[in-house]
Amino acid sequence: MSLRKTLPAFGLATRDSNIRSLVISTRHGYHRSVQALHPTKTNTQEEHVSFSNKISIDFEQTKEAYKSKDTLELLRSLVVFKLCSYDILVDKNKEIIDLSRKLLGQKMFEQFMKMTFYGQFVAGEDHQSIRPVVQKNQAYGVGAVLDYSVEEDLSQEDAERKEMESCMSTSEKESPGADHQEKFTAHRKFGDRREGVTSARTYFYADEAKCDQLMETFLKCIKASGGSSEDGFSAIKMTALGRPQFLLQFSEVLVKWRRFFSFLATKQGKDGVEVLEQKLDLEQLQTCLARLGAQGNIQSCFSDGRLHSSGMVDMLDWNSLIDERTKISDLLVVPNLQTGQLEPLLSKFTEEEEKQMKRMLQRLDVLAKHAVENGVRLMVDAEQTYFQPAISRLTVEMKRIFNRDKAVVFNTYQCYLKEAFDNVSMDVELSRREGWCFAAKLVRGAYMYQERGRAAEIGYEDPINPDYECTNRMYHRCLDYVLEEIEQNKKANVMVASHNIDTVKHTLRRMNEMGLAPTDKKVYFGQLLGMCDQISFPLAQAGFPVYKYVPYGPVNEVIPYLSRRAQENRGIMKGVQMERDLLWKELMRRLSNGEVFYTPAV
């Protein structure tokens, strides 16, 4: 398959058939302008309004931090956090839970969990029972990101089997020696994606009916968020919405496509510079491809004003070539570094596999439309690096449609990744050119141990930053970049999803320097329910938009989530005593002031 034959299929002849028409079967008339839009400052933006009332928050004022909690809730927090600091209890938590259930019986066990771990970290069993928690937090200025945290209780063997079956195509099963990057190939040893993950729920593909069921669950979550919390969020995971084979293969395509551009940039002496600074001269690109044996005129692919900068091709221009395809399986075409030709990733694609891919995109569209109808923002969670390129790309496609006037769809960027800044900066630049609202949640990441172990075992480069300090610097670099974009272009939005007090203080300092006010509602803060109240509530009382990630679901079905909360808290509470110290301080203050029976005003 030569460039002459394949490049027209990337959009020159079929402008009305693109990814977005596949994502939304009912929007065949929707068209996206691809002209390069430079960010232009209006008169209002040019007038830098001085934010004279600099925000300064004392995060050690326990009376304010814990005014939403009665004394029993303080005691519960202290007990739970202390238990989480004991290694033997955390390591044996599943055995202890099973033994407790046998000794207490199901009813007493559930009551005990609601008084302790479940009550600390989970809001309730369904969208009705979570309302008291959500509304109490909201009374103190803290919103909700609703997250239905039920997971299927699978053995490791069953999880591995399901993962291997769902991540291999028919052609791969028939030709197991197919040439794929090892990173984007299913491996049984790492088939149980729950291993080494501390804060993210995991879904395994069963069938299309199960995906429809999970979509309905997300729809109920969106409706509950719209009904119980003003300007709320609802979290979704893309691996719940379809067969992960598509995400795996599309990710491989996107990574190879990007690496081919980097290969061509190196040929023009543009290696070692920031990704958006890698700009290829169009004539030199034509010459280079011809030397590789490619046929056709690459210059014709960038006619009709498609280039952001005349005569130069950057990564976003290059990526636009893969936008326009008539079938989803046609997206799975990759460049060959040796020949410069485009080749199919798979030897063949079944009709059922094509339908499965299309259904995943349609489910995404249904969720986004319901989010708009219910006044809810949609938070797309990050996942493993072998799925994430496809997840991020599909999320961008949703942003192009639903974020035209305001931020509805938020993508999650994991800052422990070496490529985090490149990912953020490219998406910000794309939003500038195309005129939609950039919206991000910044996290450090949930899959570090799993990602490192997989990379070492299989033999590809570790995608994770070398140490925690590097991750901190990456987080602040990404955050600063988005804050600067908010300062210059008020269409950007960011949620600082962090329990790190230094990161929160860094954000406040930078907002003060830039004159960004809390009331602009462009910078949000997010923490988990049951953790870091000494950060969340003082921020909310100072006028910042603050949200708690609010898990909910039946007691027995959220046990895997609670198990990971215990593991995560062990690491946090052994290294950071601040939260426990503040809880003790507030408890002693209430005892000394005769406020033991304090009841929060709601």
From TrEMBL:
GO CC annotations?
A: mitochondrial matrix
Segments forming domain Proline dehydrogenase: 134-574
Q: Does the keyword Mitochondrion apply?
A: yes
Keywords on record: Acetylation, FAD, Flavoprotein, Mitochondrion, Oxidoreductase, Proline metabolism, Transit peptide
Per UniProt, subcellular location reads as: Mitochondrion matrix
InterPro entries this protein is in? FAD-linked_oxidoreductase-like, Proline_DH_dom, Proline_oxidase
Query: A Pfam family in this protein?
Result: Pro_dh
Listed under GO biological process in this entry are:
L-proline catabolic process to L-glutamate
Molecular function (GO) terms listed?
Answer: FAD binding; proline dehydrogenase activity
What family does the database annotate? Belongs to the proline oxidase family.
* Protein's name in the database: Proline dehydrogenase
